[in-house]
Each structure stands twice: as structure tokens, then as C-alpha cells.
Amino acid sequence: MSKKSIIVSLILSGIVCTTSGCFRSTGPTKEIKYPDYPLTPDDKDSWEYFKDENGNVESWDIEWYVNDSTFAWNSYGSDRVSQIIKQKTGVNIKFTVPVTDDGQKLSTLISGNKLPDLISVQCWYNQCHQLADQGYLYPLDGLIERWAPSFKNREQEDIWKYFSESDGNTYGIPNFAYSTQYVNDSDKMEPNGGLLVRKDWYLEAAAAGYDMTTPTSFIAGCKYISSQHSDIIPLQLSSFTSEGNTSINWLSQYFCSAFEDSKGNYQDTRLTDRYKEMLEFLNTCVKEDIVKTANFSDKAEQIRTKISRGKVFVSAVTPQDFQTAFLKCYTDGVEYIPLVLKNKDGQAPILQDISGNGYLLTMVSKNCKRPDKVIKLLDFLYSEEGQRLVAFGIEGESYNWNDTHDAIVWTDRYVAGINGDLEAQAWINELGLYQMTLLMNLAYINKVKPLNGRRASDIYIDNLKRPMIPYAYNFKPTFLKHDTTKENYFDIATKYDKTKTKWAEFIVQILRGSNWKNEYDSAIKYLNRIGLEEVNAFYSESYKETKELLGIEWGYPSNRPDYTEPVTGPNGDPSYYR
């Protein structure tokens, strides 16, 4: 799962705010009044009450706004998954998305109080808190109590609690959240981002004496491969945007830039010595032409093309965002494997695993015409039955349970389609799997997903980062739960946005500067002048509260008493391949 970051600017009543900023609106009343529809008993799954006494389900319509221009369910209405959702719930869904991710569509919907029945918004956006606080949303707790009591048994307590607001209610359901109901600390997961190196060239560099696991050896290895092969990109970073650069985030973790100090207090990783060491390393890479000048203007599609052509020696992008490019390389005979880069003191990397608290938060607007039906729909989609439908299709047709009923296997017909049978392949395309992602629970899906029938290319993509599992840890303490009722919250949110935007500009200057340290010092000085110290003070309190919420004493893995530094080969631990 990719943690996406999209700038949103809301311009309401003359007040400008970005993704973490604020909007000022009178909005609807905070008072919660529910429509007078009959209450639903709790003797069976709530969606079963869509059926009348004759077993028929009445058709009804909703509009669902998804605040992500990349979301699309192109086969909706014609594929088997959407047809079964319609069969069970009667719903006809009209999805709407913004043309561009500039925030204007969301801004217009909020300012005109024209939010549709359902809205899905990036869960870290403060608009989610504000929509709840200013009375635009129905509390899910109240809807569940009245019209979907079976939903109560499906609430994932830790996720539900994390997204609760100051009034004690929860207003949204996240997708791609990893609840402890399905994943706990003993379940080792792959990292979110990571370094991948072209295998044949890496073996060539290693044979020349460069294992590339230290900053010095890494740079030397990149220069050696550049001398042996023409027209290559030694190190490819992700796009530089107004949000920053995700590759720099991943690399800072390889260098062990800790988000918590030795006493358990929050610290801004950018202020740590390890982060500065990483910046110096990248600055050297730029000076040595290891990071190409074009990288600073590359868009995602250009990076995808460069990777797909096999021209990249080391990739620091988020691999799951570029799967098609790595798959293209694989089909062309070019394989990428992980690389264990350590800081100058040889400390093992401490990487963020792929788990998290979610991406899009789905909420029920007070403009919803039939909240009694919508909550039943959400109950079905959030249920394990609904999850299996959207991910694996129909039991007995595309999948079956294994003998122990703890994992799923694809049917022979599905496997035949995977392996090229044209009739079965067409049938698979008509299923519509993995399209309805808005409430997708990957923690559950990944726990039961089929592993049979995979092609060599599927196995390759599935295993890209798995050898790095020993270095990956739960970073949930970094998903701070802020107290939005604090008097200075909106001021802090605005200052945070200002510092984030400026830092995205400064990072380019630091990496390309003739004296990176002077550039860095000037940048931090400027950020402090526009509010960074105040932001970090506020975040320090939020960090304490978040750790209390999680019931932990230590957040950063190496601070924990049970931490043992893993030891593997330079390309991780291949025993984690599956």
C-alpha cells in the first residue's frame, strides 16, 4: 500500500488552507437529528433487511464523491462484483471524482454545503475532523445503533478508536488500514518503500569489490557501473513535488533517522544527525552525477518509463507505485532485488512497514437521503463477506476455502485464466476484482489471499521487497492523533502547511547546493521563523497522546527493550520469498 500525498487548497470565506489547514464555514448545525426510519433488529446481518417478505430488493440511488482523481471503477454495473452488490443491497452508485487533485472540487462541495451521500477523503486531511466538528456528517455510531447493529461486531476497535473525534463518535471508515484484529506486532510485514538494485549490474559491482551497503561503497559502486555501461541512471529518486519527495523519506529510514529520542520524546527527523548524514550523502550523489539533473523535474510517468527500460541501476521509489515498470523489466529479462544500505556507523536500517491507519476515510454526509440504507451498504462492504467479494469474487466460482478454512485458493477455472486460457481469461476480466477499494481491508485480504496459480511474474512482483522484512517495523506511532479541540490547533495546522511547502522547496536547494550544510542551516532557520518550533512543540504533545492511545512506552524500534539488530546479507533475507 502507497501512502499518497496530494496538496489540497481550500479557499473558503477568504481563508486559505492546505491539506492540514482549516476552513471557516457556518455549515449545518452540529446538532444531530436522525430521520425517522424504522429501527433495524440485530438478529441477522443488516443488509439482509434490504429484502422484503418475498425476498425482493428495492433499487435505490446514491452519489459517492471520491477525493482522488485517479480513482475509477470503469466496469461498474457490468462486472460480477458490482452486480452482486446491487443484488444484495439494491444500490446504484454514481461515483464522482475531481478532475485534478487541486482541492477545488472538495472546496466547492463544502462551501456550498453540497456534499453528496457518501464522501471519501484522505484520512490525514484535517477537513475530516472539521467536517465532523462543524456538523456536516452523521456519526457512524448513531447510524449503526439505529439501522445496522450487526456492524457493531465488525468494528475494528483500535482503528475505530483512532478515528474517533472529541465528542466520542467515529465519523469515518478508512480503507487500507491495518487493525491489530488481523495484524499484530509479531506479524512481520514488508517495508513500504525501499531500495531496489538491478541484479546483474549489482553482481558486477560486487565482483569488483563494491557491496554498496555503506554510503562510500554505494557511491563507488554506482560510479563503477556508470563507467561500464553507457546511458544509465545510477540512482533514481521519486518525483519532487510541493509535498516533498518520498524517496528521501525512505532513505532517511535507511540511515536510521529516528522520530523519537532516547527518552521517548517526539523529534522531527529532519533535525537529527542521521537525517543530515543522509542529506550529505544525496548531495554527494548529485555532485557525482549519480542522481541526474533531470530527476528534479521528472514526473511519475517519466520515472516509470525510465525504470521500465531497465536503465535504472538503483531505484529508491515506492516499488508498489511502479509495479508495471518493474514487471516490464522482468519480462525483458531484467530483475531487481533489494539492497541493504546502512549509515556510516553500520547500523541496520529501521524501515516503516506497509501497515498504517488508512488512506481514504469514507463518511456519510448529512445530505444523505437514506442514511438507514447507506449504513447497511457500508456494513456489507466492510464485512469479511464483502471483502472477499471485492477481492476474490464469488465462492465456488473464482475461489474456495482451503481444508482448514483459514486461507483461500483460486478455482481451477481462475488458474486456467491466469495461465492463458482465453475463455477463462475473459471470464476473469468480467469479475471486476480489486475495483471497489474504498473500504478495502488489506490486513484481512492479505491474510487469506490465494497463493496458488501464480505466474513467475506474479511471484516476482509479490516478492520484490520481502527480503527486507527483517528491517521493517510498525510505525503507527508516527500517525499522530491531534486534539483538534485545542485552541491553537488551526493555527498550528496552517503553520505546519507553510513549513511543509517551504521544506519541499528547500530540499532541492540542499541537494543541489555547493555547500549543503549552509543551505540546510538557512532552511531550518527560515522554517523556525515561520513556525516550525511551535509545530514541533504541538506535535510533541500529540505524540505522547498517540503513544498512550496505542498503549506503548517506546515508539522507535531501536528504543524498545526487545530490539535486536537484524543481520542479513547485502540483499536481505531470501528465506522470506514465498
Strand line-up of the largest beta sheet: 4-3-5-12-6
Tell me the number of helical segments per DSSP (H or I, 4 or more residues long).
Answer: 20
What percent strand?
A: 5-15%
What is the overall silhouette? Answer: globular
Describe the 3D structure.
The protein is an alpha/beta fold. Helices cover about 35% and strands about 10% of the residues. It has helices at about 80-90, 105-110, 125-135, 140-145, 155-160, 200-205, 215-230, 245-255, 275-285, 300-310, 325-330, 370-380, 385-390, 410-420, 420-430, 440-450, 455-460, 490-510, 515-530, 530-550, and strands at about 10, 15, 60-65, 90-95, 120, 170-175, 195-200, 235, 310-315, 335-340, 350, 360-365, 400, 410, 470-475. Strands 4-3-5-12-6 form a five-stranded mixed beta sheet. Strand 1 and strand 2 (about 15) form a beta hairpin. Helix 4 (about 140-145) packs across helix 12 (about 370-380), helix 10 packs parallel to helix 11 (about 325-330) and helix 18 packs across helix 20. It is globular, with a radius of gyration of 25 Å. It starts with 9 loop residues before the first strand and ends in a 28-residue tail after the last helix. Mean pLDDT is about 90; it is low at about 1-20.
